[in-house]
Each structure stands twice: as C-alpha cells, then as structure tokens.
Amino acid sequence: MKNNEKTNRKSTDNNISFDNAKVDSSHCLTDGLFRPLSRAPKREPLDVTHVYMGYTMRWLNYCKLNIVDQSVFLAIHKLASDKGRVERVDEEHESPVMKEVRSALQLEKDAAKSACLVLDTTLYEIAKIMGYTDSGANLSMIKKSLIKLSCVCFLIYKGNKIEDTFFKTNLFSRLAGKDGKIHVGINPMLGKALTGGLFCNVSMAEQRILQGDITKRLHLWLSSWMRAGDTRKIELDKLVPHVWCDMAESATLRKRRHMLRKSIVELNALDGWDINENNGELKLSRIE
Questions:
Q1: 247-265 pLDDT per residue, tens
Q2: 15 part of a folded domain
Q3: Using an 8 Å Cβ cutoff, are 33 and 241 in contact?
Q4: What SS3 class is residue 163?
Q5: Angle, to 10 degrees, between the axis of helix 213-225 and the axis of helix 250-268?
Q6: Which region, left, alpha or beta, applies to residue 202 given φ > 0 means left and ψ of -120 to 50 means alpha?
Q7: What are phi and psi of 41, to 5 degrees?
Q8: Partner of 97 at 20 to 30 A CA spacing, among 12, 160, 195, 273?
Q9: Are residues 76 and 183 both part of a single domain?
Q10: Domain check: are 120 and 98 in the same one?
Q11: In a 3-state reduction of DSSP, which class is residue 260?
Q12: In 213-249, which residue ranges form alpha helices assigned H by DSSP?
C-alpha cells in the first residue's frame, strides 16, 4: 500500500483526541489472557499466569477471553485515560453507588486497602471506541463481554504458591446506572497504569482499522513489547505463542505462520509500523 493511501486510511480517526489506551503491560504481554477463538468456542476455563521478578500474576475465569473481550477491555482503558473521566473510590467514599461498584470488585488481601477507579460510560460509547455500530446485536455482545470481564479473578502471589496470595480482585466490576449509563469499576492494579504508574500505549485508531482477530492480538502484544521509536528483531515462530498461547508443530505451525504473515501485511498498512521479514526473522519498527 502506498504511503498516501495509508495516510488517508488513518485520517478518519483524527477527530478523536488522545486516541490511546493506557494499559498495564502485564495484561498485554501475558500469553493466553486474550486469544483468537472460534466464533462458537467450547466453554473452557481461563487459567493463565505471568511471572515477573519472582511474583506470579494469575487470571482465573469460568471461560476464556476472546478478541472482542480484548477490544472491550481496551475501550474501557481508552475512556478511563481521558482527563476527568474516572472517579477515585476508597472505603470512605460518600456515595453508596460508588461504594457498591467498589465492593463488586471483591477486593481482598492487600487489594482491600486500595482505592479503585470508577468510569461512567454507556454501551454505545464503548461501541464507538471499538469502531462498532450501535446495533442491538453489537451492544448485546459488548454487555456480555463486560459480564465475562467482571468475572475474571486476578491474583498475585510470590513464587508458585497460590496459598500465599497477597493481592486478590476481579478484573472489572459492572453496575447498571440511570438513563442507560453503566458504572465500571477498575481494579487497583489496572488503575495504577491510568494514574501515573508504568503503562503501555495502545492506539485505538489502529485497533479500529485492523480487521483480523489475529492482527488485533498481535498488535496489542507488539504495542506493549515495543515503545514508539523502537526497532527490534524477533523470529516469526516466537510470535506464535504470543497470539495463540501455545506453540504448534508441523501442519498447524505452517498454518499459523501463514496467518501471521497475513497479519503482518495488515499491520504494515498502518502509518505507525514498518515490518520486514528475512528468512523467518522479523525486523519491526514502531514509528513515532
């Protein structure tokens, strides 16, 4: 695709200011937290971990999370990243509604002492950030996704002993408000990235342009792995578990390589990325 075509394609989102989601990088880098699933997947439980500096972060849920769930997750963070959109809610907050939203996060252990953030939004606003129309089917899908995300239990413990958990919370909480509004509680771990802690920037303009589930997942992982202005190298095969959560062999691996190459073509159509492959090794540049 020519440069002027790329620019024209991206310019449709220029009217949305600061169109980035500020997200805790562990939630982007963890293999299997979000993954491309079939449209009618079997209901299998979610149980994934991410180890960092001797600490284990673990996510548990009654079902796995797909790329629609990832898009809703990012849309919430984009809205929460906007100045003045979230309210800090601690144990002493005066509003019974806000305290109920906080309580629904099921904060335990060290998390029980922390404040959370609460975002007031609507299903329509979330759909707009995702690039979806406000059809009844889409809004229903987003609502179901919010329910799934609000059921995810997030734990932190040292080493590999879950009985030593010292931080426990749900990913989100959700409470219906008046006039179609919903209150979304954001747990303290995610809230740190939104209030000045370490975070990665994920372009929602780019996410809206991308069509494939595999490309959306790859884009999220790369956006956390690379900062703007970075140039890095990685083998194509090493991207496989970051998209699908596991490595593959023979025919399945060949199929996944083919799908990854199609996704790379889609990413290369964006202004912000330049990716070249040489004998299975990728050179990636994230353009400022």
A1: 888 899 999 999 999 999 9
A2: no
A3: no
A4: helix
A5: 70
A6: beta
A7: -75, 155
A8: 195
A9: yes
A10: yes
A11: helix
A12: 213-225, 240-244
What are the tens digits of pLDDT across the range 58-111? 999 999 999 999 999 999 999 999 999 999 999 999 999 999 999 999 999 999
Q: Report the sign of the C-alpha dihedral through residues 37, 57, 284, 81, in that order.
A: positive
Residue 63 forms part of a structural domain:
yes
Question: Distance between CA atoms of 13 and 237, rounded to whole angstroms?
Answer: 33
pTM, rounded to two decimals: 0.92
Q: What is the mean pLDDT of each run of 10 residues along the chain (288 residues)?
A: 37 55 96 88 90 96 97 98 96 95 98 97 98 96 97 96 96 92 97 93 97 97 95 97 93 96 97 95 94
Q: How far apart are CA 75 and CA 130, in angstroms?
A: 6
Is the domain of 198 the same as that of 212? no
Final residue belonging to a domain, choices 148, 171, 203: 203
Tokens at residue 206, please? 């780019």
Measured over the CA atoms of residue 226, residue 127, residue 184 and residue 119, the dihedral's sign is positive
Token pair for 108:
């335990």
How far does Cα 105 stand from its chain's mean position?
Answer: 18
In the numeric block, which tokens belong to residue 153?
């239990």
Cα dist from 108 to 82, 105, 138, 167, whole Å: 28, 9, 34, 6
- Residue 187 is part of which domain span? 20-203
- How do 172-176 and 181-186 pair as beta strands? antiparallel
Q: Which amino acid is located at 128 in the chain?
A: K
Of the residues 203, 232, 264, which one is the last residue of a structural domain?
203
